Structures are given as C-alpha cells and as structure tokens.
Amino acid sequence: MIELEGLTKRYGEKVAVNNLTFTVRPGIVTGFLGPNGAGKSTTMRMLLGLDRPTAGDVRIDGQHYDHLKEPLKYIGALLDAKAMHGGRSAFNHLLCLAQSNGIPRGRVAEVLDTVGLTAVAKKKAKGFSLGMGQRLGIAGALLGDPRILMFDEPVNGLDPEGIHWIRNLMKSLAAQGRTVFVSSHLMSEMALTADHLVVIGQGRLLADTSMAEFIEQNSRSYVRIRSPQRERLLDVLHEAGITVVETGNGTLEVDGGKPEHIGELAAQHQIVLHELSPQQASLEEAFMQLTAESVEYHAHSDTPVAAPPQQWGDDWKEN
Known about the structure:
single chain; alpha/beta; 24% strand
C-alpha cells in the first residue's frame, strides 16, 4: 500500500505538488492522471525518495523509502526506461540491480523471460529500441517480486502485442493482491486497465474514485432514440413527464432516462423504435471536463504559421 499525507513540493515560488493526500490500495490497478505539469512525475519521484518533500509524508507499506533495506523487494518502479548503463547487456543490467538488493541471480533469467527479452539477454542495452527498453525497465520493476508496482507511461514504444501484454500483466499483478499504480496519457488504454483513478491538476487532488464513478460524475449520460413515428413518440414521452432534447437530425435525447422505461412506453403505445441506446462519455471526455481549469499549457490550432523571412526569396522552397 502507498500512503500520501499532505505531500507538498515547492521549487522556489513554484508549487509542483500541493498538499496531496490519498492511498493507493492493493488488489486493484490505480490510474494516476493529470495534465502536463500537474505534478505526477514529481509525486512519483517523491515516492521513491528521489525528491524530498517540502512538507507532508509518503510511506511504502508503512515505511519511508529510504528506510527500506532492500527496496526492490518492496516496490518496483518504471519511471524512465532510458535510466540504464547502455554499455551493459540486459542480463548484466538486471544482475547489478539484483546483487544490490540481495536478489538471487536466477531471478534475472525469470524476469527476462517474463518480458520477452531472453533472446537478447546478452545484447547491450544501448542498441535496444524504445519498446525493448520499456520491457527491460519493466523487468527491473519485477525483479524483486515486490508487493507494490509503479509504472510511468508503461506502454511507450510498445507495439499492439506489447500493449496488450503489459495491460494483462498489470491486471494479473493486481489480481494477485499487489498494489499497482500506473500513470499514462493514453486515456483509451487507462480506461481498459484501471479500476480506480487518482486525478490531480496543478499539484492538487481533483478526484480519488472508481473509474465508473469518475465518468458518471464528470460527464453527461443520456438515452438516444430514433423512431419513424417521431411525433407520436414525442407526445408519449411528454405525457409521461419525460424531457426530450431534439437534436435536429431526427434523433431524440433523454437526459438521465432509463432505456428500459422508454422501451416499455414505446411498446405500450405500439411505437416502432430504430434505436434505443444509453450513451455515456468516454474517460477522455470526462477527464477533459474535470481538468479544463487545471491545464497549464494550452495549444491553439488557429495560430498562424509564420511566413519565411522575405530575404530568403524562393530559395527556401528547394531545401
């Protein structure tokens, strides 16, 4: 379990993390979301003792990270897949980590097999692709067979098979009763992986809730209806006290309605329905809605592109 209480980090006048309090519990995958600059990376670095908090406290299974004698046996983390000695082979990179944490040599071969790198175990890491580097970083996180796993952007550089693999790996680790804490900007992937969400913006906690509750609380849900007997259906719904929004393309929308109730009304009045479907926003739409006021860096698609300097003439077009 990971526990944060009043965790704060300042860099001069800049407050990167502001009084964060939440708990990451075992047995589920907890997603960690926030816009760029929200303080996610700083928070994860403080969890591992890489940055010292200005105030507050963070504990790994009840202990501070720097008090853990062999930390890889408590928490495994992937923060930066490039954080390795490029001149070492994949095997020797993991062997160094194992020896520094009292982990048996045989465990190195086990995790290399788990992440699919056995065939390149003797190759130097500097020649690895981004995806291979990610797999090696994940192997390092798994090395101590820890009860807590933390991953920052784990699918970077992975192909579809690799993304499917890491998604299932995180779910299986949680199913074993481990604590799994994962940060990602890929909302579609997070929606398929996480059970619980912690969302921050400008260093502050914005949400700490289940995936289903997060989407429900931060998005509009409605029932979409299409019928060739549209006017008759409108009359029936109005008589039942149901408020209907007409979209202008022949489709009707009922906010907060139950499709079962609407379907029963239509059946009672012998109204044909071509569509009766509950609609809910995606995780991405709910996230954008919640964090709209917390985005620090805004891009503007309508910003004009500067023309080349006049003195270049037409020569620039040839280069």
